[in-house]
Amino acid sequence: MHDEERRAGTVKHEWRCTCGKLLGVVEKGRLQIRFARGHQYLVGFPASTVCRGCGSLNELGEGEKPKTTQA
Ligand SMILES: [Zn+2]
């Protein structure tokens, strides 16, 4: 089932606010946003969101790679 994904490698980029809060995950050209209780959205670009932590407006355009803070 997941052979294609494995071949392409796991192309996931975390989209984080400058304050470090996770805003979403970019996977295969879609932005994946998860909420509590398993609610989930897949949206296209450009996307913008207001951070629930610090209130900053974050925008992510098409083809833009979010800064990943993952080590
Ligand atoms: Zn923030």
Describe it for me?
The protein is mainly beta. 8% of the residues lie in helices and 39% in strands. It has one helix and six strands, in the order αββββββ. A four-stranded antiparallel sheet has the order 1-2-3-4, with no helix packed on it. A two-stranded antiparallel ribbon has the order 5-6. A hairpin with a 5-residue loop joins β3 and β4 (40-43). It is globular, with a radius of gyration of 13 Å. The chain starts with a helix and ends in an 11-residue tail after the last strand. The mean pLDDT is 83. Residues 17, 19, 21, 51, 53-54, 56 line the site of zinc ion.
Task: Provide a compact summary of the structure.
The chain has 71 residues and is mainly β. The chain has one helix spanning 3-8, and strands at residues 12-16, 22-27, 30-34, 40-43, 47-50, 57-60.
Describe the secondary-structure layout:
Layout (H helix, E strand, L loop, with lengths): L2 H6 L3 E5 L5 E6 L2 E5 L5 E4 L3 E4 L6 E4 L11
Antiparallel strand pairs: 1-2, 2-3, 3-4, 5-6
The structure holds zinc ion (ZN).
Zinc ion binds next to loops.
Total DSSP E strands: 6
- Mean pLDDT, as a whole number? 83
Q: What global shape is seen?
A: globular
The order of strands across the largest sheet is 1-2-3-4
Bound compounds, please? zinc ion
Spans where pLDDT lies below 50 across 5 or more residues: none
Distance between the termini: 29 Å
Q: Report the order of strands and helices.
A: HEEEEEE
Largest sheet: 4 strands, antiparallel
What proportion of the residues is helical, as a percent range?
A: under 10%
How many whole angstroms does the radius of gyration measure?
13 Å
Strand content: 35-45%
Helix- and strand-based class? Answer: mainly beta
- How many DSSP H or I helices? 1
